[in-house]
Every structure is written in structure tokens, then in C-alpha cells.
Amino acid sequence: MTIEMSGGSQIQGELQAQIMAALWKIENGTVEDVRGALPPRYRSAYTTVQTVLNRLTVRGLLSRSKTKNQYVYKPELSEAEYVANSVEATLASASPQARDAVMAMLIGKLPENTVNELQRKASEIDRRREAGGK
Q1: Is residue 1 predicted with pLDDT exceeding 60?
Q2: Residue 131 has what DSSP assignment?
Q3: What 8-state DSSP symbol labels residue 77?
Q4: CATH placement of domain 2-75
Q5: What is the pLDDT of residues 92-118, one digit of tens each?
Q6: Which residues neighbour 102 within 8 Å (Cβ) at sequence distance 6 or greater?
């Protein structure tokens, strides 16, 4: 699995995906913290997890800071931002008709209460845009 992101940031493979999911869940952590947050079948050797964390840092998906003698890794974007960027990147090459159809299909599969919540959030975004905010 390779997901291209704007700027070239990407998650490649299942272990990287699992490590990002673990960090989104725990918000930040050392190599050992991340290993402990991984599902048992993905709990690789310390050095393997460290290597993957470093690769994700080089790609800009994580940042790291040194605390005492350990690095603490932190996601540079939320899971929702990552997924939104992934969907946007995927839809960028589609025709306008295909993009509209895909969005309609996705929304059509959602429960009514979720659609109502999306409408509420869309209204908030519109109000911020009108006010000159982001």
C-alpha cells in the first residue's frame, strides 16, 4: 500500500500504516511507546520500529524531539488530515463528474445522523470562509 500525499509525504506498507495509527492514538511517544501501542502481530524488533519512525520523519509525516537520551515522535498531521489529503490526492486525477459521483456515493452510504453532522460542519466551514478565516 502506497498513498501519495501532496508534497510527497506517504505511508508505504502495512507496518508504516500501523505505526502511524499507533501514534495517532497515543499522540506522541518513544520507540518503545510506539511498539507497545502496536497490535501484537506488528510488534517488530525495536530497531525495525525505530527505522520506520525515522523514515516517516524524513518524509515529513512525523517530527521528533530529543528528551534526555530518547527521541519522542509526534505526527505532523492528524489522521483526519492525512485521510483527507489522501482522498484529495486520489480524486485530483479524476474528472469532475467522477469526483462528484464518488463523493455522492460515499455520502450516500453514511447513516443519516452522520450526514446531518457533516452538514453542520460544512455550515461552520462556510461561516469561517465568509468571515475570512480558514
Answers
A1: no
A2: T
A3: S
A4: 1.10.10.10
A5: 999 999 999 999 999 999 999 999 999
A6: 91, 94
